[in-house]
Write the structure tokens for this entry.
Amino acid sequence: MEKYNINYTLLKAQREFLEIPHDYSIDVAVYQGGYGSGKTFCGSLLGILLCLKYPGIRGLVGAQTYTLVRDTTLKTYFEHLDNMGFVEGKDYEWSTSLQSLKFKNKSEILFKHFDEPNHLKSLNLGFVEIEEMSEVPFDTFKMLLARMRQRVMPNWKNFKYRIFGHTNPEMERGWIYNTFTKDPLPNYRLITAPTTQNIFLPEGFCEELKKLYDEDYYRICVLAENGHYTSGLVVKDFTDKNVIDVKYQPELDMHISCDFNVDPMCWVLAHKTDDKVFYFDEIAMENTTTAKACEEVMRRYPKHKGQIIINGDASGDNRSCTSEFTNYVIIKKKFLEFGYDVDIKIKAFNPPIKNRIMAFNSKIHNANDNISLFVSPKCEKLLYNIYNLKYIEGSSRIDVPSYRQIKQSKELKYLMHPLDAASYLVDYYWPISL
């Protein structure tokens, strides 16, 4: 392929994004920038450079919706090609029907949406670029990571598979935070790019944004800082002080608080005092039964010496036409088989969910600055709910994921149920009347 020259003056963050500082076979990077920080510019430039450097490479560029791919990413690709002096029909071919860009050296880029990730499973790729990475489900990211297996050609010197994306800072603790900030692998990189560092923006651009946005929004969307992860969350004021290594004590009463959804069934296990609750473990099982959940408790804690007290969903005490016994009768009979006469303590009916949430939040951190609710790191699904369950914007309704969303991201099925289980216990012993 002919050599084309173009002079780009790159920002510090853009250069850091393009260059690989490690020797691993795959590089995973996310460019987290404020508005106008050059995120898409840098990502599309990298895609073209990889195609030129490694003849025959196959790349995939996508976002959760194709509208975003077409109106943002693809447009920037064509701008780079024009700047480089590339001519359609001579240096590259664009196929509208296939939504693919093919270079003269046989490199190819596919432009697709990720709304149906199963359609991407047949691809073997050398690189992937993800637009607005935080909007893409974690399961889709993992599937794309597994597609990085195009056969390496002999003339590809110093080749590394690359999966890279760009996004605005997250407002909550999503998978970007967990993967790139909380516990990143050595070949995972987060590059932060504040809008204020882009010297090519019009004079006064950031000052105008500062006048337009409130302080928190400016800090997140211009300075590229992560949010406090609390905006719109159902659980309020939960901090690292609430997360402790809660030790299971076999001599103490063990409270098991139950949510009886079948897929998943979520129970939490706790000790309590007169004014505090300590969640030390959880049961989160897919496609299961109440009896099997009981068996899992006994498998983990076969020598419990204290009383076992069952709390939970009052509707679990209702008979249904498909069940001979109520859930609590099943629990009582099952634990009797293990030698425990459990004590069932549930309300006659469930209170409004807002009452339970308020009771739960009041134990986390009340107006007197008292912390009375503690969660073990073992309770991963409960913590996932605490950090991610939100209200629908502008309403008091909890944003429960749809079936379609759950189908795309399996972890979403665990939203709501663990928090339900945990809040039933709190509401039983420390109710709040509204």
